[in-house]
Amino acid sequence: MTKVFQPDFRPAATRTAPPASAAPEASITKADTQDYFTEVADDYRAWSPSYNMHFGFWRLGLNPLRREGMLVEMNRAVGRALKLDQPRPAHQSAERRCVVDLGCGAGATARTLVGDDPSLFAVTVTNVAVQNRIALRLDAGAGVADRVAHIEADYTRTGLPTAQADGAWAVESACYASGTAKADFVREAARLLKPGARLAVIDGFLLREKPGRSAGWLHRLWADSWAVPTLAVRDDFVAALRDHGFDDIEVRSLRWRVAPSALHIPVLATRFALAELWKARGRLSPWRRKHIVASYCALVLGLFWRDFDYCMVTARRSD
Fold first, then answer.
1. CA–CA gap between residue 171 and residue 174 (Å, rounded)
2. Is the pLDDT score of 14 beyond 70?
3. CATH of the domain at 136
4. Which DSSP string corresponds to 84-136?
5. Which residues are CB-contacts of 233 (< 8 A; sequence separation ≥ 6)?
6. pLDDT-derived band of residue 91, with 50, 70 and 90 as boundaries?
7. pLDDT in tens, 24-60
8. Which structural domain, as residue segments, surrounds residue 36?
9. What integer is the mean pLDDT of 82-108?
10. What is the spatial distance between Cα 231 and Cα 182, in angstroms, rounded to a whole number?
11. pLDDT above 70: residue 286
């Protein structure tokens, strides 16, 4: 089982190139994305001291005014979607299971899941070195450093062995892959998962390839500000899952589940912007300014129901 944590970065000469995007993308590169996350790494602490770099999941019993609780609940929603809590055969009950976070940020989802389940070992993948440094510090504080491994790699070409993962997820990270189908991301997830293992993707999705004029403009502003090539088109993404050997595909809208945490944005973003502008004497770097702009855009984009939704997509790697 341990071999899953031994990346192999051989040249990908035998891999096929991902198909071209069905819709035009802005010229956001992987280097742009790395620069963005490197530059704003500390800024995410204002949203979550534990570096939960995503929206929260509200359910009955959670206080909608307490953002961190909802953010952690989103992590647990991932675990439920992967069905990691289901009983296992007796001969497998003592075996450690390996799960993979594709585009982990600072590893918050992995920390939650391995903290809840001693049988899990998590590998997180990010191409942003500073995020792994933050993750290592937080792992130690959470007491899970011996059960999480962080690798610096492109999540569409991780170098991890084939068919060794018992589950994989991407929380607000699949959007950073290319194209409206995110086929390169889906292909790698399919390669990593064992037959019968599950994938969970939580992200924003376009509901049609060509959104309305206002929604299209807002999507482009948001995407450029957060260094995203384009959101996936929901139907294209589902088709890519089928094409790469997934079945039991389910798309669930989380629009109302994330709304309470999204409503924290105006006050938090405004307070953060004013404080940082004051400290920097009105001079923020371009990516830090864009980060603030994107925060407001994310809230407004959610109002375009015909063009956009925030979904959980789950799928099973076919046998």
1. 7
2. no
3. 3.40.50.150
4. TTS---GGGTTSPEEEEEES-TTTHHHHHHHHH-TTEEEEEEES-HHHHHHHH
5. 22, 23, 180, 181, 205, 206, 207, 208, 209
6. low
7. 455 899 999 999 999 999 999 999 999 999 999 999 9
8. 30-84+94-211+228-256+308-317
9. 83
10. 9
11. yes
- Burial grade of 85 (CB within 10 A; 0-12, 13-18, 19 or more): exposed
Residue 267 within a domain: no
pLDDT interval class at 159 (50, 70, 90): very high
Residue 258 pLDDT > 90: yes
